[in-house]
């Protein structure tokens, strides 16, 4: 599936280049990471899975919580942004689906570990959230937000006809500076200088640290849905998400009953 003409996942110099990008920019974009045939196969499998996707919508601050009225009107902690998305959960992928095979392939985990400069990296322990296919249709968008996790790996599978851009206010906050004035300007569309569009053409793999970079997906326009695969990892084994998060994103909890068949 991987475009080995362009990328050698075992090449230490390439891994070092990606690690430097992550360190300097908080984002590393690898265009044409999947070869065109693989993109076609994944898109076809996604088309088959989308009828069972779960649709959810959210209305939260960029910090993924409710508005905090202790802050003045217009403050980022008091500003809500909207989102809507459909998701295929990890346990909905079929045994032979290629995205699942890619996610479960150890050399990819090892490559990502190297790019993130980590000693240990594990696939997420969440039976629903470890691998997601996010499907966004006409009118869907994801409002400006920071992620709770340190990093996300996404692979673009299909672009919408218009909109659906991944916009990034790169490293706009840090551990010791929330930088609320700049965050507020971005929320009000007053600082285009701080925002760039990451080129997520189908087949692109993006490593992204969304904890410090505020990002959004602009509204989808047109009939073709936007498909993005989200691969989740953690520095600790067996990390799981809360039941509240599962209920809001997937509308259910994982089944604990194993089928006898
Ligand atoms: O769909 C994308 O490209 C990004 C999704 C995202 O920002 C998120 O799930 O937090």
Automatic annotation (TrEMBL):
Gene3D superfamilies: q2cbj1_9rhob like domain (2.60.120.620)
InterPro entries: BesD/HalB-like, Oxoglu/Fe-dep_dioxygenase_dom
Entry-linked PROSITE patterns: FE2OG_OXY (PS51471)
Pfam families xrefs: HalD
Region feature (Disordered): 239-261
Span of domain Fe2OG dioxygenase: 111-237
Native organism: freshwater metagenome
SUPFAM superfamilies: Clavaminate synthase-like
The protein's name: Unannotated protein
């Amino acid at each position: 599936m991987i475009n080995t003409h362009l990328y050698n996942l075992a090449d230490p110099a390439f891994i070092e280049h990606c690690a430097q990008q992550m360190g300097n920019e908080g984002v590393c974009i690898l265009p044409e990471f999947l070869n065109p045939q693989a993109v076609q196969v994944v898109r076809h499998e996604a088309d088959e899975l989308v009828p069972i996707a779960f649709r959810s919508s959210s209305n939260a601050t960029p910090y993924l919580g409710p508005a905090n009225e202790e802050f003045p009107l217009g403050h980022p902690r008091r500003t809500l942004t909207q989102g809507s998305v459909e998701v295929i959960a990890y346990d909905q992928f079929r045994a032979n689906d290629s995205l699942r095979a890619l996610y479960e392939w150890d050399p990819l985990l090892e490559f990502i570990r190297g790019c993130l400069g980590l000693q240990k990296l594990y696939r997420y322990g969440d039976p629903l959230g470890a691998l997601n296919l996010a499907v966004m249709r006409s009118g869907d968008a994801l409002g400006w937000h920071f992620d709770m996790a340190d990093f996300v790996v996404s692979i673009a599978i299909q672009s919408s006809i218009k909109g659906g851009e991944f916009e990034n206010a790169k490293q706009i906050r840090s551990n010791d500076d929330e930088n609320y004035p700049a965050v507020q300007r971005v929320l009000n569309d007053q600082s285009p200088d701080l925002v760039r569009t990451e080129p997520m053409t189908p087949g692109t793999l993006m490593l992204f640290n969304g904890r410090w970079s505020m990002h959004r997906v602009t509204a989808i326009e047109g009939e073709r849905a936007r498909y993005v695969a989200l691969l989740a990892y953690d520095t600790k084994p067996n990390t799981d998400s809360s039941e509240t998060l599962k209920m809001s994103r997937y509308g259910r909890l994982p089944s604990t009953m194993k089928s006898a068949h």
